[in-house]
Specification:
The complex is a heterodimer.
Chain A (H helix, E strand, L loop, with lengths): L14 E4 L1 E5 L4 E10 L2 E6 L11 E4 L4 E4 L1 E6 L12 H10 L2 E6 L10 H14 L3 E4 L1 E2 L12 H7 L4 E2 L8 H12 L4 E4 L4 H4 L4 E2 L2 H6 L3 E2 L2 H17 L2 E4 L5 H12 L5 E5 H5 L21 H13 L4 E3 L7 H4 L16 H10 L5 H6 L3 H7 L14 E11 L18 E11 L2 E5 H5 L2
Parallel strand pairs in A: 1-5, 2-6, 7-8, 8-9, 10-11, 11-12, 12-15, 13-14, 15-16, 16-17
Antiparallel strand pairs in A: 2-3, 3-4, 6-18, 18-19, 19-20
Helix pairs in contact in A: 4-7, 7-8
Chain B lengths: L24 H17 L14 E6 L5 H12 L3 E6 L11 H10 L4 E6 L4 H6 L5 E7 L5 H15 L6 E5 L6 H12 L3 E5 L15 E3 L2 H5 L4 E4 L5 H4 L6 H8 L3 H4 L7 E3 L12 H4 L6 H20 L6
Parallel strand pairs in B: 1-2, 1-3, 3-4, 5-6, 5-8, 6-7, 8-9
The chains are: A alpha/beta, B alpha/beta.
Chain lengths: 444, 318
């Protein structure tokens, strides 16, 4: 590593990463150049930003590596409050920083559930005091996530809730979903929904099909997802509310989204990194680290998800980072907890799609930066004058093996245990401040 | 004295018996041959052998069972092992101890053989990863019940002289049945033609990919069958609306003389027990001279003796 260790800009001195391959996924910019950062914001960027042009700024030699907006991860479960033994905002944010993620959107299914103005405020203050990256809370769209009463969407929105969700469950009551979508529209609030028709998914623990049958495990049919998605899209069409399908997992859902976008519906969807890089066969002999909701599907479904990213039909990639302790996972498969950590490996795992030629680099970075920023009305996720200097320097090529013990998350339930990945974050800046430096961590 | 001097050549190259899937043709045939020898022991006056003398066998049943548990107990005792039975009611599992903690605790008692039944698929495999002894799966959820498939195969072979080429119809609740899965894997490996017959609500998704022909009519599916293997229908299948009523189920899927007449005249009637007479099988059919249900129980002891002994050969100091 030839990179110099950058100094924090505590002294107010500007910083300038130079000689980078600058990529702004939103505009498609891909040039060699530098960025000039002052007061936490991007002052200038492009080929003209060089050692000669940046005056007395603290220079960072990027060595031709990719410099892009920091990643925005729209689906992160943190354990705080209530499950700090699994993960805190602090540990999640350190993991995020190490993975090149500069903004995380936290799910509200904590204990207590984030369904009250004071709790939104709590998360924001805890994040300000303890987190190394930007943290925005999502709030529950129903009180207590119980699907019984609508939460105070307007007040929560004003307090800083960036979006609304029903957590890990679908709101089964169609009339209530209609009301939530219609009501939230008045506040411009985005509804992010989990897709799982509860009666069809009942008792299911993995994708329905041959693999589940061989393992003797009850399956979750794809239709549990597609039926809920179809319903939601009809309700979004009816109400014109802002709707985002949190995670899709199967080809059928991609077809549905494509058709809806084709008729001009302003709906969007996400997919988890797991559903882009793994499939149900990875479960093998009941490996519970691969147990998640939606479940890992077939290889054909995985390919469909990758196609959806390449074609632009799927808008964002999320980590669906969901820390679970060993007690929750060291159980018979059907009784084990759902979820996998992923915020720290998100970028490296996503680069698999670039390395195998299925998704171009700019497209891949777009669904990790500009698209979520646009969906959430964030000023970051782009290289633009005046935008927050949330940046990641990426080594695209160096291979490594994932060692769970080295991950910064408190819980170690990674499905990429021992996986061979290629490419990683070298340097992560949040508002111009260095929050992660690979060279510092690895002593060279 | 060993139960089968001539079978000593047979070596079973696995530490555990967790399922049939993955066993080779020769391994299965070896176990069956071994069990064939063992079956004669039970018919002698002096049934006690000393093959497993000094060994400790623990029966760990998280799900109630009469026949499988007593069959393993007898098999162990006839081979001279010390046998201990543990059920969930008496174990600390009922006090909230996790499966892995239970495994670690039991392991510290240094058993040689652990026979486990659990309501969750994969639980026995999970437990096997945490102990030093040999583990035998006595049924894990809807996954596998390997000794049942072995005893079924032994029973069939004793009557038909072979497995290869036979048409075996497995009828009933395929969806929830570990017996069906283990039998499908075993019979396919030994070259039988396997059919499954069930209402579509009781068929597992993708079952045809396991190499079976799928029927939803008993008369069609039983046509030309050499073996009719019935499965138990649990009452909760009615309450969860998989079938409308016991009466309707028996009408379409219960084995009576009329449906049985579609099978070959010398077809064997099998059932893993316990039977629900009048639900999946007509009482007189169960007692028909072609019924080998009682012999299945007898072969169960022989198969379990063979399995225990085959695995014990890998134990240290042997």
């Amino acid at each position: 590593m030839t990179m110099q260790a950058p100094a924090p800009d505590r002294d107010g001195r500007p910083t300038a990463p130079l000689n980078a391959r600058l990529i702004d996924p939103g505009t498609g910019l891909d040039v060699t150049g530098g960025v000039l950062i002052a007061d936490g914001k991007i002052v200038d960027f492009g080929p003209g930003v060089t050692a000669a042009s940046v005056g007395d700024a603290q220079m960072i030699e990027c060595g031709g590596h990719v410099l892009a907006p920091g990643l925005i991860d729209m689906l992160v479960f943190s354990g705080e409050p209530g499950h700090e033994h699994r993960e805190t905002l602090s540990t999640t944010s350190r993991a995020a920083a190490a993975g090149g993620v500069t903004t995380i959107i936290c799910m509200p299914n904590t204990e207590p559930v984030i369904d009250d103005v004071a709790l939104v405020d709590f998360i924001m203050r805890r994040a300000r005091d303890t987190a190394q990256v930007n943290v925005h809370p999502m709030a529950a769209m129903t009180k207590g996530l119980l699907s019984e009463e609508m939460a105070e969407i307007g007040l929560l929105r004003d307090a800083g809730a960036i979006a609304f969700t029903n957590g890990k469950t679908s709101l089964a009551d169609a009339k209530m979903m209609r009301n939530v979508l219609a009501y939230s529209k008045d506040f411009g609030a985005l509804i992010i929904h989990h897709l799982e028709e509860p009666t069809l998914a009942q008792n299911g623990v993995m994708n329905e099909g041959e693999v589940a049958t061989r393992l003797g495990l009850p399956g979750i049919p794809r239709e549990a997802e597609t039926i809920m998605l179809e319903r939601d899209l009809r309700l979004a069409e009816l109400t014109r509310g802002r709707y985002h399908a949190g995670q899709i997992s199967c080809r059928g859902s991609l077809d549905i989204i494509r058709a809806a976008k084709g008729r001009g519906l302003p709906v969007t969807c996400g997919v988890s990194i797991n559903h882009l890089t793994l499939n149900e066969n990875d479960i093998g002999p009941y490996r519970t680290f691969f147990k998640m909701r939606p479940p890992l599907r077939s290889e054909d479904d995985r390919r469909a998800m990758v196609e959806g990213i390449a074609s632009g039909d799927i808008d964002v990639i999320v980590s669906a980072h969901d820390p679970q302790d060993a007690d929750g996972k060291r159980r018979p498969f059907a009784e084990a907890a759902d979820g996998a950590i992923g915020v720290e490996t998100l970028l490296s795992a996503a680069l698999r799609l670039y390395h195998d030629g299925s998704v171009g680099l700019v497209t891949l970075l777009r669904v990790l930066t500009a698209n979520p920023a646009n969906l959430l009305d964030l000023p970051s996720g782009r290289l633009a004058k005046g935008a927050p200097a949330d940046l990641v320097l990426i080594d695209l090529d160096t291979p490594f093996v994932v060692n769970p013990e080295l991950l910064r998350t408190r819980s170690k339930n990674t499905p990429f245990d021992e996986a061979r990945l290629q490419g990683r974050a070298l340097l992560t800046l949040v508002a111009g401040r260095t929050v992660y430096n690979y060279a510092d961590q690895h002593g060279n | 004295m060993s139960i089968a001097a001539e079978a000593t050549e047979f070596s079973f190259p696995h530490r555990h018996l967790l399922g049939i899937e993955g066993l080779s043709h020769d391994e299965i045939v070896g176990l069956l041959d071994f069990a064939e020898q063992a079956s004669s022991v039970s018919r002698q006056v002096a049934k006690k052998r000393d093959d497993l003398r000094g060994r400790t066998l623990i029966n760990l049943f998280f799900e109630s069972s009469t026949r499988t548990q007593s069959s393993f107990e007898l098999a162990g005792k006839r081979l001279g092992a010390d046998v201990m039975n543990m059920s969930t009611r008496t174990s600390s599992m009922s006090k909230g101890e996790t499966l892995i903690d239970t495994a670690v605790t039991l392991n510290a008692m240094r058993p040689d053989l652990l026979v486990v039944r659990h309501h969750a698929a994969g639980a026995v495999e999970l437990l096997a990863q945490k102990v030093d002894c040999s583990v035998i799966n006595a049924g894990d959820g809807s996954h596998e019940h390997p000794t049942q498939a072995l005893l079924d195969a032994l029973t069939i072979r004793r009557h038909k002289g072979r497995i290869v080429g036979l048409i075996v119809a497995i009828c009933g609740d395929i969806l929830h049945s570990r017996v069906a899965r283990s039998n499908i894997f075993l019979l396919n490996t030994l070259g039988a033609r396997v059919r499954v017959i069930a209402p579509s609500t009781l068929l597992a998704s993708g079952i045809a990919r396991l190499g079976v022909e799928v029927y939803s009519s008993m008369r069609e599916g039983l046509k030309g069958a050499d073996i009719v293997m019935m499965l138990r229908l649990q009452r909760e299948r009615m309450s969860s609306n998989l079938v409308p009523s016991q009466r309707e189920y028996f009408h379409f899927f219960g084995l009576d003389h009329d449906k049985l007449s579609c099978a070959k005249p010398d077809a064997l009637i099998m059932h893993p027990g316990p039977m629900n007479r009048g639900v999946e099988i007509d009482s007189s059919v169960a007692d028909d001279q072609r019924s080998v249900i009682r012999e299945q129980v007898e072969m169960g002891v022989a198969v379990r003796m063979a399995v225990l002994q085959a695995l014990a050969r890998h134990l240290p100091n042997h």
